[in-house]
C-alpha cells in the first residue's frame, strides 16, 4: 500500500507538471504509469479514443452487489504559480491552483489499496479531464463511457477545501455546490481616432456600461433570500491609448444554487445585452454555456449514509458545511447517477484558484484512509 511519503511524491510530481483542460497528456500518462505499477490481478485499465486524456479503471469485486464509482478531476488552471515551493509548477502560466493534484493522489491511494485488497463490490475509477472548463464529465457521459459494466450504481467524488482543517471531511445533504453558466459577451461598434469620438462607437464605454448594469441583477432581480453570483474575470478591448476600441469582449461566470436561479440570471444578462445594443447602437452578442456545470445535488439516501458514517467514525474529523458557490461538472454526473460529493479539508490561508494556494499534504493520507473506510462500509451494506 502506498504510504504517505509515496503519496506526497506522486502529488509533487503531478503538481510540477500541470496541464489545462483536455490537454492533460503528460498527466494521464503519469497516472497510467503509476497504476501500471499496481497489482493488476483485479484491475482493467481503459482509455477512450475520443477523450484521450481520460482514464478509467475497473476493479473486479469478489462478490459484487453493485458497482461503486469514484471520480477525480485532473486538469489545472491558467495561473502563474507564486508559492516559491521547490516543487512549484514547471509549466509556465499553468498551476494546480484548485488542488486537482491532491484529488488525483487521493484517488490513486484508494485505487492502490483496492488493487491489493480485492473489494467485495466492483469499483470504477474515473480520472476525468476538463473540470475547470470544457465539461469533461458531460463529454465522457455523452460518449457512452459509463455503459455496461462501467456504469456505476452510485458515484462519489471530492473537492479539496482550504477553509477546513487538513484531512477533515465536509459534506451536507442537498445542494453542495452551485450550478454555473459561462458567459461571453462580444460588443461590436466602430473604432476610430481618440480625438474624434463623435465619428466612432466606443466599445470600452459600452462594455463598462454593460458590466455596471449587470451589477443590478443580484441586488434587484433576484430574491435576496436566495443566492446568486456573477463574476466577470476577463475583459479585453482595444490596442493602444489613442485608438477608440471598436470591439470588446467580456468573459465571466454565473452561479446559482438552483437551476431556476441560473436561468433567471441568464435571461437578465441577455436582456441587458439587448438594452445596451439599442442604447449604444452597437451589436451585442451574449453567449451562455452551462455545459455540464449543473448544481451539485447530493443524493439524500446515499449522502445520509455517508454523513452518518463519517460522523460516527472517531478517526474522522467531520464538518457539516454550508452550500458553496464553487461549480463542479460532477454536478452533471450526479444528475445521471445517484451519489455524493464532499470536501476534503486541506487548510490553507490562500483560497482556491489563487497563485499562492498551498494545500497541506497531510490531508492526503487522511483522505485516502477515510474514503477507503467508507467504501468498505458501503460494501458491507445492502
Ligand atoms: C471547484 C471549482 O473551482 N470549480 C470551478 C468550475 C468552473 C465552472 C465553469 N467553467 C465556470 O467558470 O462557470 C469554479 O470556478 O467554481
Automatic annotation (TrEMBL):
Protein EC: 3.5.1.47
Superkingdom of the source species: Bacteria
Q: Where is the active site?
A: 73, 132
UniProt KW Transmembrane keyword: no
- CDD domains annotated for this entry? M20_Acy1_YkuR-like (cd05670)
Q: Where is the Peptidase M20 dimerisation domain?
A: 179-271
Keyword Cytoplasm found: no
Q: Which UniProt keywords apply?
A: Amino-acid biosynthesis, Diaminopimelate biosynthesis, Hydrolase, Lysine biosynthesis
- InterPro entries for this protein: AcetylDAP_deacetylase (IPR023905), Amidohydrolase (IPR017439), Bact_exopeptidase_dim_dom (IPR036264), Peptidase_M20 (IPR002933), Peptidase_M20_dimer (IPR011650)
Q: Which reaction does it catalyse?
A: N-acetyl-(2S,6S)-2,6-diaminopimelate + H2O = (2S,6S)-2,6-diaminopimelate + acetate
| Biochemical pathway | Amino-acid biosynthesis; L-lysine biosynthesis via DAP pathway; LL-2,6-diaminopimelate from (S)-tetrahydrodipicolinate (acetylase route): step 3/3
Q: What HAMAP family does the record tag this protein with?
A: DapEL (MF_01692)
The similarity comment for this entry is: Belongs to the peptidase M20A family. N-acetyldiaminopimelate deacetylase subfamily.
- Function of this protein? Catalyzes the conversion of N-acetyl-diaminopimelate to diaminopimelate and acetate.
- Entry protein name: N-acetyldiaminopimelate deacetylase
Protein source organism = Apilactobacillus xinyiensis
Q: What is the lineage of its organism?
A: Bacteria, Bacillati, Bacillota, Bacilli, Lactobacillales
Amino acid at each position: 500500500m502506498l504510504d504517505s511519503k509515496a503519496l506526497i511524491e506522486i502529488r509533487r510530481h503531478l503538481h510540477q507538471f500541470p496541464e489545462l483542460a483536455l490537454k492533460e497528456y503528460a498527466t494521464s500518462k503519469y497516472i497510467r504509469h503509476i497504476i501500471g505499477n499496481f497489482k493488476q490481478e483485479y484491475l482493467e485499465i481503459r482509455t477512450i479514443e475520443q477523450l484521450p486524456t481520460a482514464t478509467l479503471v475497473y476493479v473486479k469485486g469478489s462478490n459484487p452487489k453493485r458497482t461503486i464509482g469514484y471520480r477525480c478531476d485532473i486538469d489545472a488552471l491558467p495561473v502563474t504559480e507564486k508559492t516559491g515551493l521547490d516543487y512549484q509548477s514547471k509549466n509556465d502560466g499553468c498551476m494546480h491552483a484548485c488542488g486537482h493534484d491532491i484529488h488525483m493522489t487521493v484517488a490513486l491511494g484508494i485505487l492502490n489499496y483496492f488493487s491489493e485488497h480485492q473489494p467485495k463490490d466492483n469499483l470504477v475509477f474515473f480520472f476525468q479531464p476538463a473540470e475547470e472548463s470544457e465539461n469533461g464529465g458531460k463529454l465522457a457521459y455523452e460518449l457512452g463511457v459509463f455503459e455496461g459494466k462501467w456504469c456505476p450504481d452510485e458515484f462519489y467524488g471530492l473537492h479539496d477545501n482550504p477553509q477546513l482543517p487538513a484531512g477533515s471531511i465536509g459534506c451536507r445533504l442537498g445542494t453542495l455546490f452551485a450550478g454555473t453558466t459561462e458567459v461571453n459577451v462580444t460588443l461590436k461598434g466602430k473604432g476610430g481616432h481618440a480625438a474624434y469620438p463623435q465619428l466612432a462607437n466606443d466599445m470600452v464605454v459600452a462594455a463598462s456600461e454593460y458590466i455596471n448594469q449587470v451589477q443590478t441583477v443580484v441586488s434587484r432581480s433576484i430574491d435576496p433570500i436566495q443566492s446568486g453570483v456573477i463574476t466577470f474575470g476577463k475583459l479585453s478591448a482595444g490596442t493602444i491609448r489613442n485608438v477608440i476600441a471598436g470591439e470588446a469582449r467580456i468573459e465571466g461566470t454565473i452561479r446559482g444554487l438552483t437551476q431556476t436561479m441560473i436561468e433567471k440570471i441568464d435571461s437578465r444578462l441577455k436582456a441587458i445585452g439587448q438594452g445596451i445594443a439599442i442604447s449604444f447602437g452597437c451589436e451585442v452578442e451574449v453567449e451562455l454555456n452551462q455545459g455540464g456545470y449543473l448544481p451539485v445535488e447530493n443524493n439524500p439516501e446515499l449522502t445520509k449514509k455517508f454523513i452518518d458514517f463519517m460522523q460516527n467514525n472517531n478517526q474522522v474529523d467531520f464538518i457539516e458545511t454550508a452550500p458553496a458557490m464553487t461549480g463542479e461538472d460532477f454536478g452533471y454526473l450526479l444528475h445521471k447517477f445517484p451519489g455524493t460529493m464532499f470536501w476534503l479539508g486541506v487548510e490553507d490561508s490562500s483560497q482556491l484558484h489563487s497563485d499562492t494556494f498551498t494545500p497541506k499534504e497531510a490531508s492526503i493520507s487522511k483522505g485516502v484512509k477515510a474514503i477507503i473506510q467508507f467504501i468498505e462500509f458501503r460494501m458491507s451494506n445492502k
